[in-house]
Predict the 3D structure of the following.
Amino acid sequence: MPFSRNIRDQLKKLTPKDLIRALKKDGWQEDVTRGATRAFVKTSSASKRVVIHYHPSKTKTYGWSLLASLLTDIGWTETDLRRLKLIR
């Protein structure tokens, strides 16, 4: 799903901690934690699973390609990003 430049600019500062917080707010549940990876599942009409790489001591952000891929796997639209307060 292509996002506009304005949205990409707002998502540039998204950290793994922010993404995990938004996943939990959206009803995703933590499934497995192993090392630096945390898996989340959402059971609705179709089960979904996404794995987030998380290093709590580092406050790094994602590159756009990886972030766009994660958002596609999660299935969030621009409306969802606004509802979760990830963008304005």
